[in-house]
């Protein structure tokens, strides 16, 4: 049986990422009680006719239109159907699971007002790995993604179980469930809030953490092939700059390169190395510091209520509070920050790749080809890396500043948190591909050194690990197949950034 995560208090981004990858989720007794209490408050609001946005009013610019009690169920259903406007290819299974996990977590804070059975149906789908098809495009915030999940709960839409596509009704029937008849406020609670952005942000963090560890490893291998200063990452001079990330990267590089015969042999041949080698602690470290700040923001978001309106008080004294907690400004800014940090790590990796393949600076055979001229070696691999870096530069433009006006001027400030998280994931994917190229190029460079010298213990072990799966390149096969093999090797490494 796989990992089971119990939802009692707020989930962390690590837990969301684990659920996305396949861990099961369990609602604790206290979580169910919080959901039930919030539902009783909504029922009291309905009974007393207290005005509440999306409970007994329309939504968006229709917020002042009063909805009679007999039409409140229809309002909830109509919100799901009318908000299901997403287009384009669906999210992947892992991404969709992340969104669902964050959505369930948001409901269990106890301020949304859905019924327990509604949350339990979401949970049943997640744990059975029956995943709604969520169109990836068309959201300025969250509505269309979340509505695609809500469709399945009412027997519409589509879902996947493995490779099998099911209608919403068939997906529920597979679990022995009938489509929900949504009650007052449930339609709105199912489509608003920031779970879409939060779930995707958690995945971006998990993938980034793993790749930042690989970036340090790739830099160490390249530095050993090209570097000259054995003590460039010494603890004392690095400590002069205050940065937890820099300190961690410096410590990691010292460990990767400890007692390297190659570096001992080239020590003192230059006054200082080029920045793509010398500044690895500063650049990778700054990116790690940005990562830490973003991780804190995502965890705060997971601990926050992002439903509008929020219900509070008690069934005897019900309260409903219209606010703007569903606006994902913090997440949009955080994901834009992470995107730039990841793009920076990718950019310096490409510069190191160029130094490895460029005979004008490497001292190695041109483009790491054994018989350059007949063979092109890694020449075009560097082109690919340069293209991906350029793509990252375009993707790193801030989504949070895109703005826009919707719903007849009622929603006239948009922060685009979900698109910010989505494009951050694209940049992370590009970083993985660029690092795969650098790792393969560095492995090839070892074999073309003019003098046979021993490697550091850890770089030697990583070189052997790469070569156990991917032989040296001799223009004898499509190179992009090697990139994919290297990416699979990287993904098989332990989680939490440990290599």
Keywords, please?
499 residues, mainly alpha, Fumarase C, Chain B, domain 1, Fumarase C, Chain A, domain 2, 2 domains, three-stranded antiparallel sheet, two-stranded parallel sheet, 20 helices, 9 strands
List the topology elements.
Layout: E1 4-7, H1 13-20, E2 24-27, H2 29-48, H3 72-83, E3 87-90, H4 93-107, H5 116-127, E4 130-132, E5 135-137, H6 143-153, E6 158-161, E7 164-167, H7 168-174, H8 186-191, H9 195-226, H10 235-238, H11 244-256, H12 261-266, H13 275-278, H14 280-302, E8 310-313, E9 318-321, H15 329-357, H16 359-362, H17 379-395, H18 417-447, H19 457-467, H20 479-491
Parallel strand pairs: 1-2
Antiparallel strand pairs: 3-5, 4-6, 6-7, 8-9
Secondary-structure content class = mainly alpha
Provide the residue-averaged pLDDT.
Answer: 93
Record the strand order, biggest sheet: 4-6-7
Q: Using the CA coordinates, give the radius of gyration.
A: 26 Å
What's the tally of helices? Answer: 20
Give the % helix: 55-70%
Number of strands: 9
Oligomer: single chain
Question: What's the CATH first level of the largest domain?
Answer: Mainly Alpha
Taken from the alpha-carbon principal axes, the silhouette is elongated
CATH architecture of the largest domain: Up-down Bundle
For the termini, the CA-CA separation is 26 Å
CATH topology of the largest domain: Fumarase C, Chain A, domain 2
Count structural domains: 2
**Series of secondary-structure elements, N-terminal to C-terminal:** EHEHHEHHEEHEEHHHHHHHHEEHHHHHH
**Biggest sheet details:** 3 strands, antiparallel
